[in-house]
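lol so apparently i was supposed to do this last week
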Amino acid sequence: MCEPSGRIAVLVSGAGSNLVALADAIERGEVGAQIAVVVSDVADAPALAWASERGIATSVVPFDRADRPAWEARLADAVESHGVEVVVLAGFMRILSGRFLQRWMDRVVNVHPSLLPAFRGADAVGDAIAAGALVTGVTVHLVDELVDHGPILAQEAVDVVPGDTRATLLERLHAVEHRLLPWAVDQLVRGNVRVVDGRATIGPTEQRSSR
Ligand code: GAR
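anyway here it is w/ glycinamide ribonucleotide bound
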């Protein structure tokens, strides 16, 4: 197995707070990676503008519902042309098929605002509030072909408090995401992650949990 180069791609669809947190953690020397490219399916995603301003290479691959395989091939090419070894989904709201995932087997990582397998999908925060959950949280996991699914790298619980709105809960979830995602990316680029039978183990220690 070749050692990871530390070159990562960050795929985004929206605001990009996780991208910013990851870039800041890299700058502080906490993550042994460099962001080779930021790729988005949404041309006017604020995350893209932020990356451009920061001098990071960007690429837009607008989603093509009519020809999904061709869109995904363009997406893979945009990532691969930058010599990337780890792909980070930081608020990337599209599903990737096996064709894409096989090119970066066990090296595509996603952050999701729930304690998976609870509340998969696009509105995990709203769904947790609607369900009356007292606890939700953040999961960072390797990506397989199912939605918000794959070997778990890190999880941390966040309480849902009375009166929480999507915005107030998301703010507390983001604070956790901004710690867990950089930590997990660092483990990946250092080659510390092993996957056996659909479960990940990390380095000499156990998976990370705060509770
Ligand atoms: C994050 O909360 C992330 O967990 C979520 O999108 C948000 C993006 O925020 N991802 C998913 O729901 C994936 N199913 P950001 O653009 O500010 O990083």
